C-alpha cells in the first residue's frame, strides 16, 4: 500500500513518500536489480506493452520499482505531479529539449548557467536546428526582447553557478506564460528543501541528483519534475532513447533524500558563516552569496528561498595567480569541480566548470580569472576557515 499522505511536511515526505511495501513487508526500500519483468501470459505481455504511462513494470530502461520510488518521492518534495529519473543532470536537460523542441524552435537562457549547459545548447542542441539566445539573468526586459514567436523554453538556474545570482521566478513565469513558453528551472543549488520553483510558477524543474540529492558524492544521476502531461513527454524520450537511472543509483538517492532537509540547513548555516568571514579576509575583492545582506538580490532570495544554500564564490584582487594560490594551499578541502557533497569542495570555475565556454562569454557572465567557488560542506566551520586562511595570508 502507499504510505504517502498529502499533508506531510518536507522532512516526512523525504523519508516516506513513494514507498509501496511488497509482500515481504520490508522497512527500507528494496533494490530491484533486474533488467526485465516476467509476464503471466502472452496476453498479459501484450496488455503491458500497450501501457504508455510507465505504470507497469516491463523493462528497467523505463520502468523499475526502485527508480519509480525515487521519482515519486522527488515529485512529492517539489510539489509536482510526476518525476522522471535520468542518468545525469545533463541528460535531464537534454531529455527536456528533446521532448519539447523541434527544428526551428528557440530557447532563451540565462548567461549565468553551468558551463556544460552552455555547451549542450551551443554545440549539440543547435545541431537539431534549435537556436539559444543568452541574456542577463536579472534583466527581465532582455528576456522579453529575446522572446519570439519561435521561443518554446525559458531556461534558468537560481541561484546561478557560480555567482549566486537570483532570478525572479514569479516574474519570469508570468512573462513566459504570457508568451505560451515553458519556464524550466535548474533547482540543483537549492533542492526542494530550500526552494520550490513550481510553487512560484515554473513549469518544469530539473536536477543533477549527483549533487545535494545524494549529498555524499557517490552517484551520478538526474531528474525532471513537472505536470503529468509534460512528464509523459519526457518519459517518452527516456523510454525510447534510454538515458535512464539504474536501480542501485536510485536507491542511493533515496537514502540521500532522507537527510536532505537537515543537510541543506547545515550547509546553509556553514556557508553564511564562511561568506561573512571571507568578506574580512585580505586580498578578497568580493564575495558572492545571496545570504549576505550586501548581496544585491538578498531580499528577493529571502522571499523565494527558505535558506540560501551551501555554494558561494569569491573573487581575489590579484586574479588567477591569487585564486590558484588559495586553492593549492588548502590541505583539507577537496579540489574538485563537483558540489553538494558533505565534504567541502573548491574549484576555479574559469579553468574547470566553465573552461569550455568561450573567454568572452565567460567574462560576460562575470566569471573572472580571480573567481573561486566553494561548495561548503558539513565540517566544523572553524576548520574550513583555517584551511582557507593558509592561502589568504
Automatic annotation (TrEMBL):
Keywords: Amino-acid biosynthesis, Methionine biosynthesis, Pyridoxal phosphate, Transferase
Gene: metZ
Function (record text): Catalyzes the formation of L-homocysteine from O-succinyl-L-homoserine (OSHS) and hydrogen sulfide.
Gene3D superfamilies assigned to the protein according to its UniProt record, in alphabetical order: Aspartate Aminotransferase, domain 1, Type I PLP-dependent aspartate aminotransferase-like (Major domain)
Polar residues compositional bias, start-end: 1-10
Swiss-Prot/TrEMBL catalytic activity: O-succinyl-L-homoserine + hydrogen sulfide = L-homocysteine + succinate
Name of the protein in question: O-succinylhomoserine sulfhydrylase
Organism: Marinospirillum celere
Biological processes per GO annotation: 'de novo' L-methionine biosynthetic process; homocysteine biosynthetic process; transsulfuration
PROSITE patterns reported in the protein's UniProt record: CYS_MET_METAB_PP (PS00868)
Annotated spans, Disordered: 1-26
Amino acid at each position: 500500500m502507499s504510505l504517502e499522505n498529502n499533508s506531510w511536511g518536507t522532512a516526512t515526505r523525504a523519508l516516506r513518500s513513494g514507498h509501496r511495501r511488497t509482500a515481504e513487508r520490508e522497512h527500507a526500500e528494496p533494490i530491484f536489480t533486474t533488467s526485465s519483468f516476467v509476464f503471466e501470459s502472452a496476453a498479459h505481455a501484450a496488455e503491458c506493452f500497450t501501457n504508455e504511462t510507465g505504470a507497469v513494470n516491463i523493462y528497467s530502461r523505463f520502468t523499475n520499482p526502485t527508480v519509480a520510488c525515487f521519482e515519486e518521492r522527488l515529485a512529492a518534495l517539489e510539489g509536482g505531479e510526476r518525476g522522471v529519473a535520468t542518468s545525469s543532470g545533463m541528460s535531464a536537460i537534454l531529455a527536456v529539449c528533446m521532448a519539447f523542441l523541434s527544428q526551428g524552435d528557440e530557447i532563451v537562457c540565462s548567461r549565468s548557467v553551468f558551463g556544460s549547459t552552455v555547451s549542450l545548447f551551443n554545440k549539440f542542441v543547435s545541431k537539431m536546428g534549435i537556436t539559444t539566445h543568452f541574456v542577463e539573468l536579472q534583466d527581465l526586459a532582455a528576456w522579453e526582447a529575446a522572446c519570439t514567436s519561435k521561443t518554446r523554453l525559458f531556461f534558468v538556474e537560481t541561484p546561478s553557478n557560480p555567482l549566486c545570482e537570483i532570478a525572479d521566478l514569479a516574474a519570469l513565469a508570468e512573462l513566459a506564460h504570457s508568451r505560451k513558453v515553458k519556464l524550466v528551472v535548474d533547482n540543483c543549488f537549492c533542492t526542494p528543501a530550500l526552494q520550490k520553483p513550481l510553487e512560484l510558477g515554473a513549469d518544469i524543474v530539473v536536477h543533477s541528483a549527483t549533487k545535494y540529492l545524494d549529498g555524499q558524492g557517490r552517484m551520478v544521476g538526474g531528474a525532471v519534475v513537472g505536470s503529468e502531461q509534460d512528464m509523459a513527454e519526457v518519459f517518452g524520450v527516456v523510454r525510447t532513447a534510454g538515458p535512464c537511472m539504474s536501480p542501485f543509483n536510485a536507491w542511493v538517492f533515496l537514502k540521500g533524500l532522507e537527510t536532505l532537509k537537515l543537510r541543506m540547513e547545515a550547509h546553509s548555516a556553514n556557508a553564511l558563516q564562511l561568506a561573512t568571514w571571507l568578506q574580512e579576509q585580505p586580498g578578497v575583492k568580493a564575495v558572492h552569496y545571496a545570504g549576505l545582506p550586501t548581496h544585491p538580490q538578498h531580499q528577493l532570495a529571502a522571499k523565494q528561498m527558505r535558506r540560501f544554500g551551501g555554494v558561494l564564490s569569491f573573487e581575489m584582487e590579484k586574479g588567477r595567480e591569487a585564486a590558484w594560490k588559495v586553492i593549492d594551499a588548502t590541505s583539507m578541502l577537496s579540489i574538485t569541480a563537483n558540489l553538494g557533497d558533505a565534504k567541502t569542495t573548491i574549484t576555479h570555475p574559469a579553468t574547470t566548470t566553465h573552461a569550455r565556454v568561450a573567454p568572452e562569454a565567460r567574462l560576460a557572465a562575470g566569471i573572472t580569472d580571480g573567481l573561486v567557488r566553494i561548495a561548503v560542506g558539513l565540517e566544523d566551520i572553524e576548520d574550513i576557515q583555517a584551511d582557507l586562511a593558509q592561502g589568504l595570508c
